[in-house]
Amino acid sequence: MAKDKTIYTCTACGGTSAKWLGKCPHCEEWNTLIESVEGGAGQSKNRYSGAKSLAPASAVSLLSDIEAQDVDRTPTGIEELDRVLGGGIVPAGVVLIGGDPGIGKSTLLLQALDAIQRRGGHTLYVTGEESGAQVAMRARRLGLDRSGVSVLAETQLEKIIATLETQSPSIAVIDSIQTVYSELLSSAPGSVSQVRECAAHLTRLAKTSAISIVLVGHVTKEGALAGPRVLEHMVDTVLYFEGETHSSFRLVRAIKNRFGAVNEIGVFAMTERGLKGVSNPSAIFLSQHAEPVAGSCVMVTLEGSRPLLVEIQALVDQSGPSPRRLSVGLDRDRLAMLLAVLHRHAGVACMDQDVFVNAVGGVRISEPAADLAVLLSIQSSLRGRALPKGFIAFGEIGLAGEVRPAPRGQDRLKEAAKLGFSVAVIPKANAPKKPIEGLTVHAVDRVDEAMNLVREGLF
Ligand code: TYD
Ligand code: MG
């Protein structure tokens, strides 16, 4: 067989070059050439026999003539994982699970494969990070004695593909994609070219052989690591693990799903015997102070189909020459914007103060409905006065100082009332039509209205 030739493909225009150059000779962009194999992932010709493009070419037909079939899913048997997957793993589906090292990816997947195997599925766990003995030790620790999961300790792509073809499991886990390398490329395992090329071949194999493949990818805190991010467009489902390693709670969030809803979350607790699903998670992100403290405000966030109560904490303190704005679990740029709105539209100034905000429990909140709670906690810390007991708030804040509604406000309020919260400050458009038992609702239009209401204790 003729030796595959290494070429360099431009990530901007798709043009190729026989040698590496700083500037693409076709589109003249800088630093866009990456190593690839002629006929490999970046090329139209496929190297592996039988492999077609990701969506095989077929005759043109009318959308109305194509029969839409419900996808058939294999539940993993782990309820919280099935929830984020949209019901289970789809045949030929490729799932990417990303997260910090040590957060529990290998643990969860080993538990899932074991559960599938026990229900008659055929699974393969490919480990590139640990030896077979280490995986067996983990299985024992998880109480998965006499597990029927097959394990392959291998990192070379060509050997992994050959094993997948001969074993043809229904579900295979590759732990992790950063350790897999193709001998056809000279770059190091974990580099963008290797990760992209290997993932593309595995994805194609999944599509042509109907094996469901789960790729594990490590992401660093900065999220910048060559790896998972470059694969997001290639795979069908992207799940990310969140949570602090020192807290026992872990969230698995779907950020892309061709077969289900996005932003659905699964909640787990890391225990002595692995990850256990938390089926009623709404109150786990509250820090349970006996008495209210200054700088804390509880919000109701809606993650997927379930409302979650999350405590937002703020610390406002006299700063040095350049005031700092730091946030954990919330967007820092949005914090800077909110502080400007607070000053301009509510007259609360933090110019000479450091401002730190944190979403308790390592949960990441991306929805703007957190805005009102962020500003109320900042005002509370600045004044050194706690918000009343049983207080919640939510609502998005606009640059003009208006308080905008949050989706599904009624569900949020009902969940708060169910957990014993008694006072709510929310956007006017979310005001309930019928009173909610046990909950006094104050609906506001503008940010200054909300700040005054709380400052003057008008409840
Ligand atoms: P791991 O699943 O190996 O994380 P990842 O694959 O994402 O790098 O490890 C998760 C952590 O959880 C590890 O530090 C040890 C701990 N752990 C438990 O607390 N209980 C358990 O039953 C297991 C297996 C691990
Ligand atoms: Mg691991």
Walk me through the structure:
With 459 residues, the chain is an alpha/beta fold. The protein has three domains: 1-49, no CATH class; 79-279, P-loop containing nucleotide triphosphate hydrolases (Rossmann fold), CATH 3.40.50.300; 296-455, Ribosomal Protein S5, domain 2. Helix content is 24%, strand content 25%. The strands form five sheets. Strands 6-5-7-8-4-9-10-11-12 form a nine-stranded mixed sheet, with helices on both faces. It has a four-stranded mixed sheet with strand order 13-14-16-15. Helix 7 packs across helix 10 (447-455) and helix 8 packs parallel to helix 10 (447-455). It is globular, with a radius of gyration of 25 Å. The relative contact order is 0.09. The structure holds thymidine-5'-diphosphate and magnesium ion (MG). Magnesium ion (MG) binds next to helix 2.
Uncertain segments are 42-53
Which range does the strand content fall in? 15-25%
> Which topology of the largest domain does CATH recognise?
Rossmann fold
Mean pLDDT: 87
Radius of gyration (Å): 25 Å
Bound ligand species: thymidine-5'-diphosphate, magnesium ion
Largest sheet: 9 strands, mixed
Number of domains: 3
Distance between the termini: 81 Å
Instruction: Report the principal-axis shape.
Output: globular
- Strand elements, count: 21
